[in-house]
Amino acid sequence: SWLFLSAAFLSVGAEISITPEPAQPAEGDNITLTVHGLLGELLAYSWYAGPTLSLNYLVASYIVSTGDETPGPAHTGREAVRPDGSLDIHGVLPRHSGTYILQTLNRQLQTEVGYGHLQVYEILAQPVVMANDTALVERRDTLRLTCSSPSPAEVRWFFNGEALPIAIRLGQSADGRVLTRQVLTRHGVRREEAGAYQCEVWNPVSVSRSEPINLTV
């Protein structure tokens, strides 16, 4: 049972490190939280997906001698503990992102704790560019373009296929249901600013560019 780690054992100095493989996983990847620095003969492992050793965050416990694994409240059906203490997550999702803690128990009933962080990146959908007007009057009207994406990402703007020197991170509403937006504004638009505008969203594993919107001045 995973309850063996709920008691207050003496904790020894932390030597454990945890690294995700691959380092920048995309949603749907099979990943491993690889453990380094385990010392001595260990009785058991417990994995937590959260900032503390709360039982609410317990993913699974593993008994080394028998290979028995017991899922905890935070198990999503995708995790499996390896005999060496590493944690496999199959078909990882963005919701798997966050802090992970491994707690070990040795024969002296001492515990040791290691921490790691997992960031899972979404495969980005195509963004959409909207304009306040597509037929503008030179030096009078203001050009306002809005780039919308359903996911947090970096954004770049393009004019007639050439990148503009603008790079701003897209945010997300608190409830996660409002499209993220980034606005490009030009006051007193000039004739040479007529043309095709696009925005491109990207993260370390994915990039997607909008369809062009054509403006006349």
UniProtKB/TrEMBL annotation:
It comes from the Eukaryota. The keyword 4Fe-4S does not apply. Residues 1-28 form the signal peptide. CDD domains: IgV_CEACAM_D1 (cd05774). Keywords: Glycoprotein, Immunoglobulin domain, Signal. Transmembrane segments: none annotated. Residues 127-216 form the Ig-like domain. InterPro entries: CEA_cell_adhesion, Ig-like_dom, Ig-like_dom_sf, Ig-like_fold, Ig_sub, Ig_V-set. GO terms for biological process: sensory perception of sound. It holds the Pfam family Ig_3. Belongs to the immunoglobulin superfamily. CEA family. This is Carcinoembryonic antigen-related cell adhesion molecule 16. It comes from Mustela putorius furo. The lineage of its organism: Eukaryota, Metazoa, Chordata, Craniata, Vertebrata.
